[in-house]
Amino acid sequence: MLIGKVSNRRTTSLRSDKVRIDHGDRQSDILDLKSSEFVGLIHQNKLYSRIGGKDYSSQIARAQAESPIPEAKATGKTEIIDGNECEIFTHNVYGVSTRLWVAKAHPLYAKYKAALLEMRALNREPFIDGIVLKSESKMEGITESTRITYLKENKVPDSIFHVPAGYKKQ
Fold first, then answer.
1. Per-residue pLDDT for 156 more than 50?
2. Rounded to an integer, what distance in angstroms lies between the CA atom of residue 66 and that of residue 153?
3. Of all helices (H) and strands (E), which one includes residue 115?
4. Does 67 fall in a domain?
5. Is 40 a member of any domain?
6. 91: domain CATH number?
7. What stretch of H or E contains 119?
8. For residue 85, which of 109, 52, 121 has the smallest C-alpha distance?
9. Do residues 76 and 91 make contact, with C-beta atoms less than 8 angstroms apart?
10. What pLDDT score does 85 carry?
């Protein structure tokens, strides 16, 4: 039996209609929610790829046609995470069973609600009103857990939403 734990730090920065997700120090994704342009950065090799708004939108539309967004069901249970009351939801898609801990009254949710809902739609995630502070997915004996450990409002420089100088197109 193999038992292991892998910890990955993911940082999400949100500024009006732009999102950047840093997957540790190896890779970043930049998404313009207004134009649907997607940029992937591979930091180690200083490479980037860009999928234009129309191309990315057509990929999203194709994915939506092939599989509907899963419907999340409330369990009726709640749990407190970092002082936030979270309602627990579940959903199952293609053999992956997922539980979500959702804080509806988080102080930052109202301000960023539109962008968060747009991100969920693009990522094919179920519509749930609130910030997902924790998730747990299980498939074939493997469990993947995600937990927001730090959530605050900062000034985010515009430069992080652009391809850094010196990066080459893949």
1. yes
2. 37
3. helix 109-122
4. yes
5. yes
6. 2.50.20.10
7. helix 109-122
8. 109
9. no
10. 96
Residue with tokens 């627990």, as numbered in its chain: 88
Query: pLDDT for 74-115, tens place per residue?
Result: 999 999 999 999 999 998 877 889 999 999 998 888 888 777
Place of tokens 């502070």: 133
Long-range contacts of 86-95 (CB under 8 A, 24+ apart): 86/130, 86/133, 86/134, 87/130, 89/126, 89/128, 91/126, 93/67, 94/67, 95/139, 95/140
Range of the domain at 22: 10-169
Instruction: Provide the 8-state DSSP code for 163.
Output: P
Chain-centre distance for alpha carbon 99:
15
Could you tell me the pLDDT band of residue 4, with boundaries at 50, 70 and 90? low
| pLDDT tens profile 106-145 | 888 888 877 777 776 666 677 788 888 998 989 888 888 8
Give the contacts of 13 (CB within 8 A, at least 6 positions apart).
19, 20, 21, 22, 156, 160
What is the rounded CA–CA span in Å between residue 51 and residue 58?
10
How open is the CA angle 160-24-167, to the nearest 5 degrees? 45
Count of domains in the chain?
Answer: 1
CB 30 within 8 A of CB 20: yes
